[in-house]
User: Fold these one by one.
Assistant:
Number 1:
Amino acid sequence: MQFYRRPQPIGALSFDLDDTLYDNVPVMRRAEAEGYRALCELFPEAGRWTQEQWAQRRWQLMQSDPSLASDMTLLRLVTLQRGLMELGVEEHVARAGAEQGFQAFINARNQVTVPAQTHAMLKALGQRYPLIAISNGNVDTKEIGLRDYFEHVIQPGEGRRGKPYPDMFMAAQAHYPNVSPARWLHIGDSPLADVLGAHRVGWQAAWFRGGIYDEHELVVLPTFAYADNQHLADYLLA
């Protein structure tokens, strides 16, 4: 573990999910492929664009509309609907088709294998701290076997923006009014969504080095960085 800031006493923990508690890269590869296959079955014209071209359109939309960039469910639905309409599908049909295509994606997206080490860590930490999950993603924590560890699971939707916007962090604080911002520790792999997001609301941040990001992508320094969940658990339980 590497410390960048002086740690403060911790009163509550919040966890990111994807690529922090389990390897989400192979999950997303399978889900993307399944979503594309299902979409092309429903709408043969969707096959005029490759899976990579659909992903590029989603990326472009994310860059042009920051409100969509932090809500992965809405981003995908809007990408599918607008893409189908551009390919000649009528709006009401495209809207329903986007929902169907997304459902095929999300079914595969929830086929996650969570390491036994993660289960053991969350069980132990939950006996010491209030635990919540704060995720921009759309994984179903009940489906993947993690829901019972968390007192609350907070995700974008219904006007609530994702990280690094403060909305979900503030929603977490509202559940625990006696825990000051400085006593929260948010744990995640994204330098922007997790570390910067926590920093903006006055929280401490633990950056997981084993995710999909590199150190040069850090915008602000976390309280500390770690590369193994066992090291994190040992520190927090000491």
Number 2:
Amino acid sequence: MLKAIIAEDEDSLRKEISKKVMEISDVQVEYITNEGRDLLNAILRVKPDLAILDIKLPQMTGIEVVKNIRDVLPNTEVIFITSYDEYIKDAVKLYAADYIVKPINYNRLINTIERVKRKFSDSSFVIEVRCGEDVRLINTNDIYFIEANRKKTFFCTAFEDFMSNTSLSDVYKLLNKKVFFKASRSYIVNLYKVYSIKSVSRTSLEISFRDKSKKAYLSKKLYSEFRDRLKDILSQPDDMKAN
């Protein structure tokens, strides 16, 4: 079940958005508000999977709210709804799932929510890996990439980075192959976390991730397959793609 929060200061529109979202299967609206500071407190308390919010909210804008939550809730998806299109660059920098200019195209809103649902259903499950004498439980939705490091593996995740005794090949067997791609002999990447790629040598490309300075590397021999897999699961409206 996808947990959602809605924030819109216009009463009639707030009710209309809420009604449309509540009609979508497997989506639970946990909180509805009409102002920004209340929205921020609600998000930090509820920890929703999805926040649907207007940008021009009283007391605190939607952009300000998302800037305040990104470090502590990096996996919360955001859909901005607004009467203004000048904030789209801010939305891209905050990794918004969509940016919808009023009047609302409800087919687009529903399609974006369905895409977010697929992301969470595909990637939110727990695996076990060995860390010394302990076994660590990891929500795979938190994983950015995994790197082979001699006989161990390095995990780059949303909340911490750590080393595991479980080999890269054994970790790969545990992962959802729709979501995780073996980019080379040394790297496995979460396709949902990829932000950009660029060529760095004759044989490899550098992969950058949302909210992370660390990089992974893709073999150029696998680029075509990698690109096709990204297109399959990360399709976005054209005006939400970074230049």
